[in-house]
Amino acid sequence: MSFAFRLAVLLSVASCALPAHAAEENRCGWFSNPTPGNAWLKDRDGEWTVGIQGNYSAEGDWPEFKRGQWVVTNGSSYGYGCACMRVATSRQEMRVLTIKSARALPLATCRGDRRLGKAPE
Description:
Blueprint: H1 3-17, E1 25-35, E2 38-43, E3 46-52, E4 56-57, E5 70-74, E6 78-90, E7 95-105, H2 107-111
Antiparallel strand pairs: 1-2, 1-6, 2-3, 3-4, 5-6, 6-7
């Protein structure tokens, strides 16, 4: 076996082991933050993990919601809203890796999108 062939095989195997980072994409849907450090974005493709307390948190800032854009479900500040986020994701893990930008939307936007299903509880 030639050196060039062995090198090509080695590089091919090594590249398969590296995580594939997706290009930035817009994801819009229900942003849920039910408890400290825990957050998900549910869009037309499923539920994306944004943060798990003590375990994982995507890099970047979560959306900021104004009064009337956020539904409180737990305590005084935890709940859900509707948002669009420019993110890089891991599709295999359904995980948001990086948040490039995030903006809150009116609740009616998500409520009117049948692909999102009902609001988080």
